[in-house]
Amino acid sequence: MRRLDLFLIVLGGVMLLLIAIFAMRITTHVPNSRMEMSRVKLMQLSPETREMLRNLEHEVLITYYVSGREHMPSHMRQLERQVVDFLSTLKREAGGQLDYQVIDPHDDPEMQQHAAQQRAAPFRVRTVTRDAYTETSVWSSLQIRYGPHSPAIINGVSPDHLPRLQQLLTGQIEQMKDPRQPVFGLAVEDGSFRQFRQFLQLYGEVVPVEVHGDRALPRELDALFWMNPGEVSSAQISRIRRFMESGRSVIVAGSRHDVQVQRVGGEQRFSLIQADQAPEELLAAFGLRPIDGLVLDHFSQTVPGDPAPRPVRFMIRCTARNQDFRAMRMIPNGNLLFSAATPFEFDRERLTELGYYPTVLATTSDRTQIQDMKYGEVDLLSAEMFSGDPTPRLPLMVWLRPNAPWQGSLVAAGASSLFDDRLLMEDGFAHRRLVETFAKTFGADDRLVINRTDLGRSEPLPTLAGPSRWIWRAVCIGAIPVILLGVAYRRGVLSIGRSPSPAGPERARALPLTAGAGLVAVLIISGLFVATGWRADLTANQTNVLASATRDYAQAARDEHAVNATLYISRQSSLPPELRPMVRRLRDQIRDLRRAGAQIDFSIVIADDLTDEERERLAEERRIKSFRFTTRDEDQTIVRTIYCTLELNGRERTERLSFTSRQSFEHLEFRLAFALWRLQTGREIHIAFASDIPRLSAAEAFHDFQQRNLLAPTGTDVYSQARSFLEAHDFRVSHIDARHPRMPEDPVDLIVWMQPRRDIMPMLEIVAEQLHRGTPVFLAGQHYNMQSRQYRGQDFEVVYWPQPQVLDIDLHLFPQLGLTVKRELVFDRLKFEMALDTQVNVAAGEREYQEQISARSFQVRASASSFDRFHPAMRGLGDQALPFPAFIEIDKEALRQHGLTATPLMTTSDQSWRFNWTGGWIPERVLNGPNGPDARADQREANAEANGQLNWSPRLPLAVWIEGTFPDLAESLEGRRHDATDPIELESDEHTDETIATSQLMLVATSHLFRNERFGHEDYRSDHFLLNGVSVLALPEALAEVATHRHMPRGVDLVTAEERLRWRSLVVFAGPVLLIGFGSFWWIARRKAPVHPDLRKSPAETNEQNDLEKR
Q1: DSSP state of 147
Q2: Domain boundaries in the chain?
Q3: Which helix H or strand E contains 769, and what residues bound it?
Q4: Nearest to 588 by CA among 543, 535, 509
Q5: pLDDT (tens digit per residue) in 163-214
Q6: Alpha-carbon distance 811 to 826, whole Å?
Q7: How far apart (Å, rounded) are the C-alpha atoms in residues 559 and 289?
Q8: What CATH class is the domain 183-451?
């Protein structure tokens, strides 16, 4: 190509680019100029909207409260123009009956007060400032006034609202013009629940619905009540999903068990029967798993008896204190009766995938037990009714709330007795108020409007048969490569059937032979690697091969320690696609153990080939049961019932490893090595797990509940995921009630205590005694739980209040040992992002809860670079997210006097600070922090004077390992049990006691990272942190090394804004600069290199020469 042609092409491209830029600038000065290419067009009004605007009976005034463009984050800077253009279109079409105004209250306090009076509220968004994420409050609310009707408000208008904005506005106007009653669907299998149907009709229209048929659910429904659904098919689950995606909600109730009551001789007799009315497939599809067994509760229904009333402990009386309906429109505030209920546990992975957040509405009490289910007649006074394994509070009713406000929600109740005719109208229960709560929450005006925002969702494609699916996949995958090969052949790039290039005929002939030989060599080498099991591990910690300790356990599994391994599994075709590579990895790991020296006789049993009787016997005798696994295949939600259990037998002992999820395979090497250790030693690791439940402060309970004649909720078990995680890794876990602690009869290897809360003395006595005897302890707690709130009286500005958690361990035991968990707030510029439930107080006694993304300085991110990498408890850990932590002050001299040593395991960054909070909201200056730790001394003094109590405190300890001989404090603690504010004075223990042993304490200054909503987060693996701590504390050193044998990315410490800009500039410009340099070098080299004579010839001359050679 000639230089002039190349110059003209480049010049033309530049001119076209400039024309496009100037055309875009010109269109910004033309009102309402827009080219809409999406399926949903904002400026194109629907016929229904035009008809509604022409028939307005009153004037409509729409007020848009919005921050200026300069205050908006980048993704929202065009929002005002888009909304205003749409309002202009409505105004033109309405013929003078509709007007709008735009108000910017961002920097005007009077306008902010006016907007707050109109119930408009700002919300927090993330923006990028100096190449770093920061938070800011912005306004974007629409108020609709229609004649004499009460105005409607839409807060938090964002770009996500734009496709639905037309229908939202018109829907609000239609609802004010002609209020519509909600329509409730009721699905029951028989003619029961008649009184429930009649009572529900007080709040809206009730329509009978047949869910088990093939027809779609009626579009006019706003909510569906589904009683005792039983088994649910994949097609029905898909219909329910589409129903909820359209904004509707589903309330489903049912249990695995039922109660039959017979009156014999004037006496009531109870029998438990198998009902299978719980929609287990439906619950599994939405991330809920039923818990096996019969739940017994001290707070239960009683029946008349002689000489005293007899408790029916499986008929659970859930009191108002064990309920939490604050996020709904009203509160039942009374007893709810769950008859033979089936409680739930959460599948956090599935919930995260679907985008649902679980809110527990009702739980059992602190005095709950669970036992194996036995059907038949029940003797209420038998010992079996008062025995069972103690458990924490179990969820009886769960509300799955979507992250997207356009979707509907799901309420799952563990028993249908809440809506049963026999109990609905009975005094002493709040079942009618419960129905009213659901009706007013899911039938509210805003939900009715959202339910009618139909975006014309495309119907799912019909399911293709096997051959059709493979054909279409082949076409979609292979079409583009085939087209590219054809184009290449057409242009002569491929020399198939043509004369080879004169520059290298020998090379062209040898190319296919060379490529084929290389492919064969690769296949042979790969086959040898697979056959021999050899693999190259280039990782720094050798994480892709067995750990040395694992090989030692494998070599010990010989002769009398030989193992028989049986894998009970479903067919390959029945396994979910996600589990198939995991199962192959399990088989490969067993082969690796055998190569390492283990004598393992491995066999596979296909459970699908067994008869029903054999499977029942397998479940009863060997406790090997099937489980449900949910997958999403295109638009179909498939719930499979499968087997995947490995049974290991050796030395008259059996170990069973269940693999019910992808996470259960994550620490596969550790689980196998742990099982071999248990088989060889005959031991198990017993963990006593104690935790308290979140509670309201005294001020909150009085102001929000007691003044309104309501009972304050006492919370639910927020550490159930952590407890289940340890059980899934084959630890034996026993629940300890922290308020009424009682240690198990069997010896305990470790105590885990999550979030101590006043009164801590009973549990603290046990912990002190166990530490003195040599039992290690893992303790995590924090002083405050940060709450985000917005108040109408403060113009709905977001404020933060630290809710006291009355940790109290800083008053007893630890300060005298030389450790203090300081009652101060910790802030750090190294932070992370999380969702905070924001309480919006729109009016007196009226609250709304919104989930807002926050990245404030009290959300501390502990970088892996700040960990003690030499300590075994911190091996293989990535960055940790620590919400609202405290910090630990260490007095090394006091520790030394008691024979203890302390090692900080993780710290804050260099730019952290602390604040001695005494009340009120957290000032914004405290949230922003000082100017920087590298400021000069005079600047630091000025900052300290300006900020009051605000001081720089770099590298604050957040987790500490304490080891040594702990003193005996049982008598001292017993004497101060009733004085919770008196610190303990210790005396040096100079005498020698043979029973005293060395022990370890791992103290973490926050517990929030182990709560259900944070546990196992994909970016911040607190589950790894817990497993590391538990393993190093309770297991032998070699086995703990296997538990921490994993690869995690190295953490990056705090990077300043200037450093980020430098690195980003380097990353952005390095590539183009290298390409330009390489191109220049190549161009210069080609100009200097000699040219082959054949290459100077034109294509016609080359073809002529080839023809002469052929002749």
Answers
A1: T
A2: 38-177, 183-451, 548-679, 684-1047
A3: helix 761-773
A4: 535
A5: 889 989 999 999 998 888 999 999 987 767 899 999 999 999 999 998 887 7
A6: 19
A7: 41
A8: alpha beta
